[in-house]
Specification:
globular, 161 residues, mainly alpha, 58% helix
């Protein structure tokens, strides 16, 4: 039982840290959110991919200097919402249900359903691989599945469709 309480305390500390930052952050692949790096890429897939790798592997966080701002990541918001729902089920305290609902509302705002056939979510930054360029917010299966799980968890708790 004490291990469960310790896990809850750790989860609450992590959620408090995220909440202090409005559930926003940087991503290891968000280099192309930098206006400077986009310009210095000269529309070259190799340069775009190179900037992504360089920033992801840099021992120093250069994002603030390069104009990359912290943004909400749909996958992270879904994980945070699910954590709040789990904590609410465990002890029903500390406003977890309201926090989960607020995060789910934010996820609905980030849905790309107006651009595509249904609700879907993707990374908040463009990505370049050796094979293709993916614009910001392009739907991804992993992100959409995680968000879907958060909504299913919320439905299981509330019954609210």
């Amino acid at each position: 039982m004490s291990m469960l309480l310790d896990a809850g305390a750790v989860a609450r500390a992590g959620l408090a840290w995220a909440q202090e930052r409005d559930y926003t952050g940087w991503d290891k692949s968000d280099a192309l959110n930098s206006p400077l790096l986009r310009a210095l890429s000269f529309n070259s897939k190799l340069l775009r991919a190179g900037w992504m790798v360089a920033l992801a592997r840099s021992p120093v966080n250069l994002r603030p200097l390069l104009g990359v701002v912290r943004r909400p990541n749909p996958k992270s918001l879904a994980v945070f919402a699910r954590a709040h729902l789990i904590l609410d089920a465990l002890d029903g305290g500390e406003n977890d249900r309201a926090q989960a609902d607020a995060l789910l509302d934010q996820l609905l705002e980030l849905s790309q359903h107006e651009r595509f056939a249904g609700h879907c979510w993707g990374a908040h930054h463009p990505r370049q691989t050796t094979k293709f360029f993916q614009p910001a917010h392009s739907p991804g299966g992993v992100v959409t599945a995680e968000v879907g799980h958060a909504f299913l968890d919320a439905y299981a708790v509330s019954g609210d469709e």
